[in-house]
């Protein structure tokens, strides 16, 4: 029951094969919501001073993934930047332009195959496919394909109702085949997805819910959004049947992370300034008591990442709407304390619009893209366990 509207690709992909694209169309699912309050600016937080440093790029950094323990790829404007992570902070090795070079083809989210040989740059209505070894070797011939979405153009700012497309790819010789499988309609603006540790579930956030569409095509949307649970096996073959449950997830939920044991699903509710924890078992039963913790964080949290073996969870408090009298930062949440209902967690200062995270393979350094400061920031998270 999709309704035609201004369609656009959403750009966060965190998955290995198969590749799930988020694109948009008007959806018809309307959740029964009793909205948690939205909040403009978060209360002030104490600052923790731990070692952080940054490397400046020439372009706005967004998605960020490790190809090897010493090489990081960063989506940066219409380029992909390669960074050497053997130093703190990393150093810039090279910047490879993508073939399109103009709007709407900025490089947004990145995803890398499990074998680390193929990198996907979310861009335009689909993804640019990059041969990792060729990119490291200097870039010649590294752009091997473009997986085309079916509708719309990329724009993180113009997203609207939503669907997930699944594309299957990979042949044995690492060339790419691009097979359109189908899509599932969810609530609006799906920007965050995460797999369960066993790969059987895909969690997806929707920023808003569609209340109604007027005769002229205007969508009336809620301030609150949802978290959906999808069955990955069904999603691969028969996507429209894959939805297991959808629950309310605060104002503007945008990213999701799953605990290492798969039991908790964490969501940043950007317009609530909250980090929400859901019990995965109850969530799958679509139970109204699945929400087990609501943690106040900084202003407009986006990225979320578990660090220190799951002892801490960190949010990227973006202040992306540029509110006055507040700041950006990383809220460091002690998980055990948060699950007991504690509040008042401190923050680490950042540049402007901290957005996406990646943890180093040894777990000691957290890297993040400070989108509006054109820099990648390194944070020595091993220092958080010293007290
Ligand atoms: C990364 O930097 C280290 C130290 O400067 C250097 O030894 C190494 O060769 C560099 N690696 C790459 C892939 O550039
Ligand atoms: C997508 O962008 C291209 C290039 O700017 C443009 O030609 C095309 O019409 C756009 N498609 C949609 C659906 O907006
Ligand atoms: C890669 O494998 C596919 C499927 O087996 C085949 O069609 C294609 O020609 C091969 N490409 C190369 C470059 O060997
Ligand atoms: C949008 O929908 C909500 C919920 O149905 C309703 O209360 C509100 O009046 C609508 N707003 C507009 C501008 O139509
Ligand atoms: C989940 O529960 C809500 C609220 O009771 C309901 O509106 C929705 O249809 C349910 N979703 C699924 C997938 O069962
Ligand atoms: C700024 O925030 C502080 C701390 O919440 C508050 O005391 C102060 O009144 C605010 N200033 C303005 C101008 O809103
Ligand atoms: C980034 O690093 C430079 C050089 O160390 C430093 O001068 C600057 O203050 C840092 N910027 C931020 C926003 O942390
Ligand atoms: C990170 O902090 C730990 C603890 O203070 C320290 O031992 C280590 O050298 C630091 N890492 C870097 C890259 O400086």
TrEMBL record:
- GO molecular function, a single term: isomerase activity
Q: Which organism is it from?
A: Hyaloscypha hepaticicola
One Pfam entry for this protein is Lactonase
Tell me the SUPFAM superfamilies matching this sequence: C-terminal (heme d1) domain of cytochrome cd1-nitrite reductase
Q: Does the keyword Isomerase apply?
A: yes
Q: PANTHER family from the entry?
A: DIHYDRO-HEME D1 DEHYDROGENASE, PROTEIN NIRF
Q: What is the protein's given name?
A: Putative isomerase YbhE
Source domain of life is: Eukaryota
The signal peptide here is: 1-33
Keyword terms of this UniProt record? Isomerase, Signal
Task: Output the Gene3D superfamilies linked to this UniProt entry.
Answer: YVTN repeat-like/Quinoprotein amine dehydrogenase
């Amino acid at each position: 029951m999709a309704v035609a509207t201004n369609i656009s690709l959403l750009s966060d992909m965190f998955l290995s094969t198969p590749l799930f694209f988020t694109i948009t169309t008007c959806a018809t699912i309307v959740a029964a919501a009793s909205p948690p309050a939205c909040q403009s600016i978060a209360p002030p937080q104490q600052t923790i001073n731990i070692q952080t440093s940054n490397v400046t790029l020439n372009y706005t950094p967004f998605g960020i993934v490790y190809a090897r323990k010493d090489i990081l790829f960063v989506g940066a404007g219409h380029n992909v930047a390669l960074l050497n992570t053997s130093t703190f902070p990393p150093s810039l090795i090279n910047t490879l332009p993508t073939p399109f070079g103009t709007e709407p083809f900025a490089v947004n989210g990145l995803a890398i195959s499990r074998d680390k040989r193929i990198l996907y740059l979310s861009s335009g209505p689909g993804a640019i496919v990059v041969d990792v070894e060729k990119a490291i070797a200097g870039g010649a011939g590294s752009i091997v394909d473009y997986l085309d979405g079916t509708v719309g153009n990329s724009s993180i700012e113009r997203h609207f109702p939503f669907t997930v497309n699944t594309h299957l790819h990979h042949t044995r010789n690492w060339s790419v085949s691009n097979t359109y499988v189908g899509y599932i309609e969810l609530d609006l603006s799906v920007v965050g997805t995460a797999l369960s540790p066993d790969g059987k579930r895909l969690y997806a956030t929707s920023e808003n819910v569609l209340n109604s569409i007027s005769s002229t095509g205007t969508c009336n949307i809620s301030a609150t959004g949802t978290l959906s649970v999808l069955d990955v096996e069904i999603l691969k073959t028969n996507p429209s049947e894959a939805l297991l449950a959808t629950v309310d997830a605060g104002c503007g939920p945008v990213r999701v992370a799953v605990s290492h044991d798969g039991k908790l699903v964490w969501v940043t509710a950007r317009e609530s300034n909250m980090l929400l924890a859901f019990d995965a078992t109850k969530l799958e039963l679509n139970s109204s008591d699945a929400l087990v913790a609501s943690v106040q964080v900084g202003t407009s949290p986006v990225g979320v990442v578990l660090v220190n073996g799951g002892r801490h969870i960190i949010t990227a408090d973006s202040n992306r709407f540029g509110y006055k009298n507040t700041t950006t930062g990383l809220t460091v949440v002690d998980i055990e304390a948060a699950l007991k209902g504690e509040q008042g967690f401190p923050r680490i200062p950042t540049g402007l619009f901290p957005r996406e995270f990646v943890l180093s393979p040894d777990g000691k350094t957290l890297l993040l893209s400070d989108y509006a400061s054109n820099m990648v920031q390194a944070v020595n998270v091993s220092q958080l366990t010293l007290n």
